[in-house]
Design goal:
alpha/beta, 34% helix, globular
Length: 337
């Protein structure tokens, strides 16, 4: 085990995948000599050369379209979208080509394409640099959607994504790039948890807290704070947003009877809405109260000085926990019904 940052874990995941399979190549803006704006691809150009570490023009639709052609010809391209909000020019390619090629060809064409996206807020950046567009891709049939929350998952699940014959949209929370954790760089993928499984990040018995990405850290902090008041929160790190591991989710909800969902993205038609609907359908007779969502606000991403008011924090999550437990509101002292 090695103590490294999430950024380094992803770098080593790319390096290992490229060493193991010469069909793997990486593409993106400034990923060669610069090593990417977050230095995720640092050193790969020197080791693998310009034919496998491809600096591209500033044209996301062209980058993904080229990767579709490469995947069609048997390569395993890994595309870096420089910032989350830059993915929209490539949306047509992802939705109309990447997600549908396998179905359109009646299973004869595979799309082993990984689209890496530095994602979400908390780094003091502006709009187009702090977006949470995951719901668009979760809604699109034919894509796997992954959101990692720790260095080990970032390393292992990226290697799993690259090895998969399915197209994968791989969300990396940029505010955790410098977070450190223990990583087994030599982990055998055959022994790792499948890419589609959720993880019980913290066991609990009173409330199930569903989340993903950087919000897992906030959720764990909330669970620690709630413990001081005698409340036991089970934190579920979804890891995969499409498909969702509802077996793990429903097992937790049937145990606790109460659900809170939190994510950075806007509330309206977000991933949380789908989670609440699906949990209610599967666990209606087990629920002791209506599920509650704690999300970003339904606004364009705010200026850096205001983002702390936009991102779900510990207090907002604990307030939601009080509501599902029918306890006095921690902020107002009033019972929520």
């Amino acid at each position: 085990m090695t103590q490294i940052t999430m950024a380094k874990a992803i770098n080593e995941g790319l390096r290992r995948a490229m060493r193991d399979d010469d069909r793997v190549l990486v593409m993106g803006e400034d990923i060669g000599k610069l090593g990417g704006v977050f230095r995720i691809t640092d050193g790969l150009l020197d080791e693998f050369g310009a034919m496998r570490v491809v600096d591209t023009p500033l044209a996301e639709s062209g980058i993904v379209g080229t990767a579709v052609g490469l995947a069609y010809r048997g390569y395993r391209p890994v595309v870096e979208i420089q910032f989350d909000g830059f993915v929209y020019p490539a949306f047509d390619q992802i939705v109309c080509q990447v997600a549908k090629m396998h179905y359109r060809s009646m299973g004869n064409v595979r799309m082993p394409l990984t689209i890496r996206i530095p994602w979400a807020g908390g780094v003091g950046a502006a709009e187009h640099h702090s977006e949470s567009p995951e719901a668009y891709f979760v809604h699109t049939a034919g894509l796997r959607v992954i959101a990692v929350s720790n260095p080990q998952d970032a390393h292992t699940m990226l290697r799993q994504a690259i090895a998969s014959d399915d197209p994968v949209v791989f969300f990396e929370p940029k505010r955790l790039y410098h977070a450190k954790g223990e990583v087994d760089l030599d982990a055998d993928l055959a022994d790792a948890a499948p890419m589609g499984l959720a993880r019980v990040a913290r066991p609990g018995s009173d409330v199930t807290l569903l989340t993903y990405g950087a919000q897992v850290v906030t959720a764990l902090d909330a669970a620690t704070a709630a413990e001081d008041e005698g409340v036991s929160i089970e934190v579920i790190d979804l890891r995969s947003l499409s498909p969702v591991d509802y077996k793990t989710v429903t097992a937790s909800v049937r145990k606790t009877g109460r659900v809170v969902v939190t994510h950075e993205a806007a509330r309206e038609a977000g991933v949380g809405a789908e989670l609440v609907a699906s949990v209610t359908e599967r666990c209606f007779n087990y629920l002791e109260s209506a599920p509650v969502r704690v999300t970003g606000h339904d606004i364009p991403y705010p200026p850096a000085k205001l983002e702390k008011h936009h991102l779900p924090d510990l207090d907002r999550i604990l307030d939601a926990v009080d509501r599902v437990l029918d306890r006095p509101n921690s902020l107002t002292g009033v019972m929520e019904r």
